[in-house]
Amino acid sequence: MFYDYLKIHVKAGDGGDGCVAFRREKYVPFGGPSGGDGGKGGDVILRADARLRTLIDFHFQKHFKAERGGHGQGKNRTGKNGRDLVLRVPVGTVVRDAASGAVIADLVEDGQEVVVARGGRGGRGNARFATSTNQAPRYAEKGEPGEERWLELELKLLADVGLIGLPNAGKSSLLNRVSAARPRVADYPFTTLEPCLGVVRLAEGESFVMADLPGLIEGAHAGAGLGHRFLRHIERTRLLVHVLDMSSTAAMDPLRAFAVVNRELELYNPELARRPQIIAANKMDLPGSEANLQRLRGELKDYEIFPLSTVTGEGIPALLHRVAALLRQLPPPCPLTPDSLPEEPELRWEGEVLVIGGELGRRLLAIDWENPEARRAAAESLRRSGVERRLKSAGARPGTVIRIGDREFIFTPAEGNEGEQ
To answer: Closest by alpha carbon to 250, among 296, 193, 317, 304?
Structure first.
């Protein structure tokens, strides 16, 4: 089965918690705080691998989580960083944020990487909070949660030339004849059920990659047949070779077949219909083909037409040499430009609840709200930094429920009250 579109969930590692510890050593009467920082959580990384051909590995597992950072320890020892999680995907994979649809990366080169979820920072140990007026702090920070998101993975094959046409036009036979690829060939429609790539090598040492796509039928842009599923795989091609059945026994007149397929390209993506295109007039060894060829040349004067037969091999060298010449002139396809991911708002209302997110939310989640001393220090810090004023400006009033992550608080702005859980 050929998998070229999937959704997966990735979760970066949480940062390790900071440590509360004190130095206790003989002959050192005032050792002071010695709690170390937590380690950073591991990132989730997607890496393009030329050895892979489909996204089948992600069909069986859809949730991926990187290692969390180690907790800090006494003697100012920092916890170890979590290991990054590297997921391999085929070259040509487009990575999008499922929630916004924004393009995160277009992985078109072997070994190209992108970080799709960053690990959380480690919490600071109590040694970081020691001051001249607070020489023995008994609190530390929690580790920052790692990023998590749903991703859309869409594979678009990297090929120079795409073979298009109705079912049974001879696309698979042509690829079979000119490359080492062995797509299924039979005398019934939809023999090809998935895209197939083949490397075409010419005598002069030139080569190019040709893609055979399942046949298009009328209505493919709306999901009819198999063509709509695989039209994405010709979006990266520089040249289209339109294979037409020229015989008198063809299921559709070649002129109508040409119009139907190009109409489907136009409806799916107008840019595809403007892609350079040449015509491979196939099955010239069968009766009625010469008459159809003359009509085709009379009607489609703006297109280069190459009569050939995939059975006898006649006309195929001329087609391949012309394809190679055109590819030397055409520019390579440009990868998609990554979009800027929308930032999570720091303050937003969900009904009667004021939700704190973004950088401010991550900062508040690092506070150890179970520790009374940490709560007092945090409340004072929030007042000094103007967070309380921002909450009031956003519409918070005494008694408003404030949510930070999975925790809820009652907003109490009076001096000396830092909030009740």
So the answer is: 296
Q: Which tens digit of pLDDT belongs to each residue from 373-387?
A: 998 888 888 888 888
Give residues with Cβ within 8 angstroms of 372, minimum separation 6: none
User: By three-state DSSP, how is residue 245 classified?
Assistant: strand
Token couple for 76: 């100012």
- Rounded to two decimals, the pTM is 0.81
User: Residue 7 has what DSSP assignment?
Assistant: E
pLDDT in tens, 199-239: 899 876 788 999 887 766 665 555 555 555 677 788 889 99
pLDDT per position as a tens digit, 53-90: 889 889 999 999 999 999 999 999 999 999 999 999 99
Top-level class of domain 161-329 = alpha beta
Supply the mean pLDDT for the chain: 87
Full DSSP string of 20-42:
--B--BTTBTT--B-PPPPPPPP
Specify the CATH class of 347-410 in words.
alpha beta
Alpha helices in 36-144 (DSSP H): 57-60
Residue position matching structure tokens 């830092």: 418
State both tokens at 257.
Answer: 């077949």
* CATH 2.70.210.12 is the classification of domain 5-155: yes
β-strand pairing of 347-350 with 353-356: antiparallel
- Cβ-contact 283, 246 below 8 angstroms: yes
